[in-house]
Amino acid sequence: MDLFEISWRTIVLYGIITVVFRFMGQRGISQLNVIDLVVVLMISELAVVAIEDSEKNLLYQLVPIFILMLIEIILAYIQLKSQKLRRILDGEPVFIIKKGKIDNKQMQKHRYNLDDLLLQLRDKGIGDIQDVDYAILEPSGTLSVLEKSERKGSTSVFLLPLITDGVIQEKHLELLNKNELWLHQSLKERGYEDVTHILYCSYLNGQFFIDIKKE
């Protein structure tokens, strides 16, 4: 393979793959779920093969790249419509520390050890676990922390969604010591009869924030 062949294939593939990733959406590396990561790795490998294998027509070597892009776009669209699929692919936030107590079961379940916890707390300038009221391990692997000093004067913890895409988040209600009956009654008092019409609903210090789905 001559230098010219390598050069023009590299330039063409660079441009095409840049466009492909733009079509696949704007996510940072830390936000990639399992499917995204598999697609990125496969496209990268296919691009390397296409550059090195000059005996095959480049057009045919681009076909699997575009197929992967199409699969990614279709899955992304389905995720927009299905909260269950989003949870499977992206995962859910997990409380590692709850009311000042470390949840060992959740740590073991997610293969997250004490060294990881202490490291991420130090990154946030927190040297003592006793100072932490709540800590959430996000699907991206980052840690969201609420210190005990920050909670003074507040009747709630994190601003957690109670409804997303018309689906009630029961775990978040439990953290607020509330139930679905309370939520339905509260929404009904505010003129919202059907939760499936609500795109997003959160509750903090006695105040609701509600956003309705656009038709």
TrEMBL record:
Task: Provide the YetF C-terminal domain boundaries.
Answer: 81-203
* Gene Ontology CC entries for this record: plasma membrane
User: Where does the signal peptide begin and end?
Assistant: none
Q: Where are the transmembrane segments?
A: 6-25, 32-52, 58-78
What Pfam families has UniProt attached to this entry? DUF421
Q: Which UniProt keywords apply?
A: Cell membrane, Membrane, Transmembrane, Transmembrane helix
Q: Which Gene3D superfamilies match?
A: bsu07140 like domains
Q: Where does it localize?
A: Cell membrane
Describe its membrane topology: Multi-pass membrane protein
Q: Which family does it belong to?
A: Belongs to the UPF0702 family.
Protein name per UniProt: YetF C-terminal domain-containing protein
Q: Which organism is it from?
A: Priestia megaterium
